[in-house]
């Protein structure tokens, strides 16, 4: 359910909270600077990934190979001080290769017992590289870990470290050898971030910085404990009634059953659930703090509508036949907010 927030005085923050938000904003500025030394030409991508992590969520990075998705995840692990692990998803990857498994061992006294060997999912930042190259069975193995932050093996639950984030990379589904992710798993990702080609100036700077004798390396700018504290602080930031109304209008307006726009009712097969509203609420707060502001605005909701909604909606056959795109539908929804 969407969390209830006190909106009695949305623009007034207590002095202690104000000081904490300002300190976090300064720390996040150092984080962005550290990431910017290594990642070139992707400011929007870096911002959206940081927003998702600050919100305590998972990220799906979508783009063709060679755009620095893997480098971005490795850089964030170093900058944020997180224990990082990487899994290369392939068609023959099995669920036990990710979660771990129990092995039968015999002790010195001859007694046999099962011992659980943890898989790579037991980390703070898991990079699921090319997640849509694995079979649906293996993809779904991450479902419980992403949502419940634990793994159940042989009837026993094993908690995952805190914080725990999955940053998955995905090739466009038009490429050969890929398996579309099921809707239930897509909904577990807070944001779907599109990684596009850098502009010419950024690509020039990248070439000069990465093909010389020395290459810039990521440096630590935050600890895991500080990140957990930042995530807790994000949830304490008040949200105005105007912003809350905009979130509800956007999400409920994207469902064919409750949509006010004829375009939505005609062209969508299904729309986002309450988890999308929760994602917008948290992400809007995180974006405000990342920009050095003390409260989110409707502009934050509009800016985050695409990465929050596009993987939680599906066009029907009529829309595809008419050449309608999801970005057209989301654009109409954003326009309706004014």
From TrEMBL:
* GO terms assigned for molecular function: ATP binding; ATP hydrolysis activity
Write out the entry's keywords from A to Z.
Answer: ATP-binding, Nucleotide-binding
One matching Pfam family: AAA_lid_2
Q: Does the keyword Nucleotide-binding apply?
A: yes
Q: Which residues form the AAA+ ATPase domain?
A: 55-199
Task: Note the Gene3D superfamilies from the entry.
Answer: Magnesium chelatase subunit I, C-Terminal domain (1.10.8.80), P-loop containing nucleotide triphosphate hydrolases (3.40.50.300)
InterPro entries cross-referenced by the UniProt entry = AAA+_ATPase (IPR003593), ATPase_AAA-3 (IPR011703), CbbQ/NirQ/NorQ/GpvN (IPR050764), ChlI/MoxR_AAA_lid (IPR041628), P-loop_NTPase (IPR027417)
Query: What's this protein's family per the entry?
Result: Belongs to the MoxR family.
The name on file for this protein is MoxR family ATPase
Q: Which organism is it from?
A: Teichococcus oryzae
């Amino acid at each position: 359910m969407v969390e209830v927030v006190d909106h009695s005085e949305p623009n007034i923050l207590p002095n202690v909270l104000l000081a904490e938000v300002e300190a976090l904003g300064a720390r996040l500025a150092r984080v962005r600077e550290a990431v910017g030394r290594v990642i070139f030409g992707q400011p929007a991508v870096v911002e959206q990934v940081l927003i998702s992590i600050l919100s305590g969520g998972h990220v799906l990075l979508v783009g063709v190979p060679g755009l620095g998705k893997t480098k971005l995840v490795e850089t964030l692990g170093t900058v944020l001080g997180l224990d990082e692990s990487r899994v290369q998803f392939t068609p023959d990857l099995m669920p036990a290769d990710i979660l771990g498994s129990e092995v039968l061992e015999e002790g010195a006294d001859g007694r046999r017992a099962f011992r659980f060997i943890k898989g790579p999912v037991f980390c703070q930042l898991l990079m699921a590289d090319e997640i849509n190259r694995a079979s649906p069975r293996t993809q779904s193995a991450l479902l419980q870990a992403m949502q419940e932050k634990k793994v159940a093996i042989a009837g026993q639950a094993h908690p995952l470290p805190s914080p725990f984030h999955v940053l998955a990379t995905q090739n466009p589904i038009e490429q050969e050898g890929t398996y579309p992710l099921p809707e239930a798993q897509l909904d577990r990702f807070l944001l779907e971030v599109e990684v596009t080609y850098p502009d010419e100036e950024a690509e020039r700077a990248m070439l000069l910085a990465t093909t010389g004798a020395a290459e810039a390396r990521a440096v630590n700018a935050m600890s895991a404990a500080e990140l957990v504290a930042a995530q807790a602080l994000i949830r304490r930031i008040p949200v105005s009634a105007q912003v809350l109304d905009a979130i509800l209008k956007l999400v409920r307006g994207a469902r064919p059953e409750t949509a006010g726009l004829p375009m939505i009712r005609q062209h969508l097969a299904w729309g986002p659930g309450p988890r999308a509203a929760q994602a917008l609420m948290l992400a809007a707060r995180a974006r405000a703090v990342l920009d050095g502001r003390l409260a989110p605005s409707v502009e934050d909701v509009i800016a985050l509508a695409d990465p929050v909604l596009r993987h939680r909606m599906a066009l029907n056959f009529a829309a595809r036949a008419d050449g309608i795109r999801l970005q057209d539908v989301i654009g109409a929804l954003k326009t309706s907010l004014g």
